[in-house]
């Protein structure tokens, strides 16, 4: 496996999705693939296992590698059969895998929360990964799981004790996930103005939380969550789960059956370009209709039906009779999340490249000219303690060649050199 992996290492480490795919394989729920099975296998530390193999399994039959063997290759007697260790060794560090696991765990816990499922499989995965990466390095993930159990207790207290004790009633059935922001990866959130009815329910929940945790306060992620709504029209009834922004859009049609894009944009405090894309969902569901460009109305009765077939009374004021909402404090649409992550990664990449360029300028000012491999080794030394500040040889070559094209560097005899008038 190690011999096969060697020529693939450069390719895999250059792919942005390889670490994510490896971690997804490790977390396979039913353990039906090699990586998940490998993670579940308790391994001895590599050095101990290797030594035990030499001294216990017929040591008299041990044979060294032939004299013509490449000294840079790993001795076959010290090779590991642990697939996970081989993959981690490709990157030279476990930090990338730990950070990717934190992102995956965040998504998986959100999905678990929406489905009201047990997080037992996530607890099992975390315990197995602690054996691989160390308990201290996985401490943030432990806090993330603890937040789930704490959130359940907080919801029970507020919904079953605080409201009854103070004779309060919340119009929405809120099930809120409370996270410790400093321990969780950044959760993409689109800021917008929530409808007044929903805002009042959140404020009521806030009071219960502050009563329980006097020294802490909540910051709501308004676009992150899942909402179960029920819509009633003249000829039909629709039950659907949507994200909070989509729910807030249709909530406005409860009082007014016609809205323009600009009016909705002003009410929700959200850019029209983003809002127009969100409106597409309700158009596809047959709930809204665009009668003119950027003018929307509810479809009370679909073509070809009569009021005698109605499953609910005629709706008043736009068709939304009941919006019983199951609001969660914490997942925007997958496409928006991926776009936000992509933009964030691109911005981070540009920032890192500027840092590398500053280092390269300093090197070339002191040493005048350097070949590509020497620059790469020196950059690795500067960034050896920061896994986010690693740069591959191909990426560095592209960066330096871009500077050559811009007239900031020249190549002389295979060495890069600053242009004389470049400060």
Automatic annotation (TrEMBL):
Residue stretches making up the Cullin family profile domain: 43-283
Tell me the Pfam families matching this sequence: ANAPC2, Cullin_AB
Q: Give the matching InterPro entries.
A: ANAPC2 (IPR044554), ANAPC2_C (IPR014786), Cullin-like_AB (IPR059120), Cullin_homology (IPR016158), Cullin_homology_sf (IPR036317), WH-like_DNA-bd_sf (IPR036388), WH_DNA-bd_sf (IPR036390)
Q: Where is this region: Disordered?
A: 56-76, 300-320
Keywords recorded for this protein, A-Z: Cell cycle, Cell division, Mitosis
- Compositional bias annotation for Low complexity: 304-315
The record ties this protein, via SMART domains, to: APC2, CULLIN
Family per UniProt? Belongs to the cullin family.
Identify this protein by name: Anaphase-promoting complex subunit 2
List the source organism.
Answer: Clavelina lepadiformis
